[in-house]
Design brief:
Blueprint (H helix, E strand, L loop, with lengths): L1 E4 L6 E4 L3 E3 L2 E3 L5 H7 L7 E8 L2 E8 L7 E7 L1 E8 L10 E7 L5 E4 L3 E7 L3 E8 L8 E3 L19 E2 L1 H4 L4 H5 L3
Parallel strand pairs: 6-14
Antiparallel strand pairs: 1-2, 2-10, 3-4, 5-12, 6-11, 6-13, 7-10, 7-12, 8-9, 8-11
Length: 182
Amino acid sequence: MNYKQLAIEGVWLMEPHVYGDSRGYFFESFKPAEFRAHVGEVEFVQENESLSGYGVLRGLHFQGGASSQAKLVRVTEGEVLDIVVDMRASSPTLGKYLAVNLSGENHRQLYVPRGFAHGFVTLSPKARFLYKVDNVYDPANEHTLSFNDPTVGVDWQIPSTDMIISEKDRNGISFAEALTFA
């Protein structure tokens, strides 16, 4: 696995060594000791999966305070544009975002530390999205940063007319308000 620290401290892109032949392919998707050696000590307590159609936008979600979650995300089918927004008050990149294409073909994984809002939009007809988290879901501390907050200015790379957004995500809060919960 190749580990690459991205432009925002703490966010890592992982690209596996894929071994393919006429039968298909094989790769190691997670080795705890190797992960710890590169990223640090993280204990994942749950793994989740979602399936979304083209244009489905999920996010930008985060849990506040002690309920914050680190995530290890990947796509096993289809393609998404994955977005992470730095919500860490003491960070020099506060309010900055990163966009990474994750797909079933590129096998990339993205590690998102605690203190980030996270979301994605589906770029393919459908996408199967898997993610590990290091803290259990806490609905009392769940928040949604507005996907179109002008302070952050995320370029979702698809027309807004193609976006399918839940009511909860459509009613996300401003970046300034979100910081009070981060």
